[in-house]
Amino acid sequence: MGVAFPVAIPGIYDYSIPEELSDRISYGTPVLVEVRRKRTWGVAVQLREKSHYPNLKPVLEIKSGRWTDSNQSLLKLYQWMASYYQCDVGRVFRPFLSKSIMKTREKTLNVYSVTQKAEDDLKERHREILQRMRQSKQPLTVKEITQLTGASYSVVKTLQNKGYLKQELASVLRHADELSMETSSEQIQLTAEQQAAVEQIGATLKNPGKPFLLYGITGSGKTHVYTELTKSALSMGKGVIILVPEISLTPQTIQRFRSAIGEAITVIHSHMSDGERRDSLQEVISGRKRVLLGVRSAILAPVDNVGLIIVDEEHDGSYKQSDMEPRYNARDVAVMRGHIQKCVVVLGSATPSTESFHNAGNGKYNLIRLSSRFGASRLPKVEIIDMGEEHKANNWTPFSRHLLEQVQTTISKGYQTILLLNRRGFSAVLMCKQCSYTYSCPNCSVNLRYHRAETAIKCHLCGYYAGAPDTCPKCGGENMKYKGTGIQKAEEALKEKFPEARIIRMDQDTTRKKGAHISILETFAKGEADILLGTQMVAKGLNFPNVTLVGVLQADTGLHFPDFRASERTFQLLTQVAGRAGRSETPGEVVIQTYFPDETAVKTARTHDYQTFFEGEIETRRTLLYPPFGKLARVVMEGKCEKNVIDCITTAADTLQRAEIPEVLLLGPSPAVLSKIDTIFRYSLLLKSSSVAKLSSALNLIRENQKTISGSTRCIIDVDPVNML
Ligand code: ADP
Ligand code: ZN
After folding, report:
1. How far apart are the CA of 263 and the centre of ligand 1, in A?
2. Which of 191, 543, 580 to mutate to test the pocket of ligand 1 (most atoms within 8 A of CB)?
3. pLDDT digit string (tens) for 637-683?
């Protein structure tokens, strides 16, 4: 039998199946085997009678249960992923076979139940305890017995010793904290538009066809459409997978789904412990939970008989796994899973990706629109402030005069404000006024950022950390200045302007601790803060009815990134954050500050004009053969020895050139935008093609070629890349 591994062991290894396990192993069964002298969990991917190798080691242990669906179609999906995303098939199993998950065991507790023994000689008090326990109809822990009857541990032990109580081991489920919170049971009445969407999509549950793109403006009630559809799928006995970007999988979101769907739902997100994740998965595998709400890896979960897959905020970049294999996009895998397993796929967004909207235009997807906000709530009025004009008027603070006025008004009316500044730290860079020396990271090709709270300079890539110097190391000048505005500096300026206001900051630095992210949002939701100042974390999915003002301090922070999606991302971010304002009857106001008021992304965000943005964007993509017109693959070579890295990537490029694969365009090789991270040199090649098959053969060639090159250089292949740095 061939076994593949989720960890960095390339290829497939043969093992023998012991007699007693022979009828319990099938394709996709997790198996424990010894590899390189270590016990490692792998997965059975080839079952055959004979092997070419003698003296095979045996399989030691297996996990049984429905790891894969009965007709094995999930494995087809895994295989497609391995070939499309250019990795070993074992890697695709990683989220469910990771060492940490396989290592965690079932959690068990001692529970007690009442025996049949006659109670004639018992004290009245003890008889009462047994009576109460019988009424609860299930075995109880000591803690539960105490709560129910007041009996102490020693009483329980006495009753056990006398034979009135029987002790057993019971397994308990660990689950995410959010699953034990109260739910509300509000009844909702769908709007006509929502109802129509539910009916149109719901009608296909029996006989799924093309995927749906649900293009619904912010606040149009997409969540209600999702929950209604989920209920329909459940009532037909089908399983459901709902994907949400990591950042918007807040307790608030989970509560909304639980309130509507009830106990059939379980969750998977990255703030859960291994034990919680293992149990959640076990619930799905056993079929006890039919709805899985989770982040990107949930699309790979062995939910049985899936009838519906929902991808909320389908445009979100976090669906792409960029940092490790498989480098998949969960949105695209969802569409593929829908195709293979014949289920309904709904991609939802207020700002669909250019690729998906194009697919809706050319008939690959069905387009459904929700074009109005729920109830009396309207899209907010958006104002653009040219910061160049502010400077002319001698205002050098991070806040325009108009924004300050609006914040003041909002506070005095008792409403709340969200301010977005997509830049961590105190300021962009620390610079010598005399000789213009800037501090750059010794390990990376970026500038260090000043962090006021710790008077330190930090690298946001590798974490390099040093005390902030008073003098310039180059010229000795004593005049160091801070260039640009980071979020910490903005916070300070804000406190100065509004000393009375309660301000909370949300960025990577304030949310490092487990649960911090949640408690900040709770504080804000309870109205215990007037202003929430944050990085893009505050832009998505939040639903605070009391927020009437949203300010964007620098709309252009991402606009001039060397990435073909920079403009699209800016438009999405501005539209999403603007969508946080005025989500109840009180109208909302949005103020966008920028140095580039004439950029299309900024102008169209002002009028909430997705269509115009899309039309401009799709033309650019067509001209430059970017997705959806051309497929992209990025090849990055990295290593400590720069010369070796250059050799490898040049060889790869030469090989491709010599092979003359038609319709494959080669750009580079060149140093990556981040040409050095944590002492590792990085070079990249970009492949463009209108043919998936041709692109694949080019990449196969690179992989083959790489095997023959020795040295410490690592080759990373990223198909449909999202991260271009
Ligand atoms: P979206 O995800 O499309 O931005 P939401 O699903 O968050 O929108 O809905 C926005 C707000 O409007 C939420 O507070 C939601 O409860 C409310 N809402 C939407 N549709 C309805 C409805 N049919 N009945 C009651 N409340 C609704
Ligand atoms: Zn660094």
Report:
1. 21
2. 543
3. 999 999 999 999 999 999 999 988 888 999 889 888 888 888 999 99
**Mean pLDDT score, 578-606:** 87
Contact 239, 291 (CB under 8 A): yes
**Residue ranges around ligand 1 (CB below 6 Å):** 188-191, 194, 216, 218-224, 374, 543, 583
Q: Which ligand ends up closest to the CA of 544? A: 1
**CATH H-level superfamily of 381-423+485-620:** P-loop containing nucleotide triphosphate hydrolases (3.40.50.300)
User: Measured in angstroms, how far is the CA atom of residue 317 from the centroid of ligand 2?
Assistant: 23
In terms of pTM, does the model score above 0.90?
no
Q: Calculate what percentage of the chain has a pLDDT beyond 90.
A: 39
What's the 185 CA to ligand 1 centre distance in angstroms? 15
**Distance of alpha carbon 725 from alpha carbon 721, whole angstroms:** 10
Q: What is the pLDDT at residue 65? A: 63
Ligand nearest to the CA of 197: 1
The more confident residue out of 430 and 17 is 17
Q: Find the 542 Cα to ligand 1 centroid distance in Å.
A: 12
Class level of CATH domain 631-719 = alpha beta
Topology match between the domains 2-97 and 381-423+485-620: no
Question: Considering only CA atoms, which of 398, 395, 573, 390 is closest in space to residue 485?
Answer: 398
Q: What are 356-373's pLDDT values in tens digits?
A: 999 999 999 999 999 988
Q: Quick one: CATH architecture of 179-370?
A: 3-Layer(aba) Sandwich (3.40)
Tell me the CA distances in angstroms from 552 to 247, 434, 532, one per residue in order.
19, 32, 12
The closest residue, in CA terms, to atom 23 on ligand 1 is 190
Find how far residue 457's CA is from the centre of its chain. 29
Q: Whose CA is nearest to atom 24 of ligand 1?
A: 188
Percentage of the chain beyond pLDDT 70 is: 93
The number of beta carbons lying within 10 Å of the beta carbon of residue 107 is 13
Of 190, 215, 224, best ligand 1 pocket probe by most atoms within 8 Å of the beta carbon: 224
Cα 679 to middle of ligand 2, angstroms: 8
Q: Show the tokens assigned to 634.
A: 């990025």
Residue that wins the pLDDT comparison between 71 and 35: 35
CATH code of the domain occupying 2-97? 3.40.1440.60
The alpha carbons of the chain give a radius of gyration, in whole angstroms, of 29
pLDDT at 339: 96
Could you state, in order of their start, the residue ranges of all structural domains in the chain? 2-97, 108-172, 179-370, 381-423+485-620, 631-719
SS3 (DSSP) at 457: strand
Mean pLDDT calculated for residue range 125-147: 84
Query: What single DSSP character describes residue 104?
Result: -
272 near 176, Cβ under 8 Å? Answer: yes
**Closest ligand to residue 674's CA:** 2
What is residue 568's predicted lDDT score, i.e. its pLDDT? 93
CA distance 143 to 133: 12
Please write the tens of the pLDDT for every residue from 600-621: 999 999 988 999 999 999 999 9
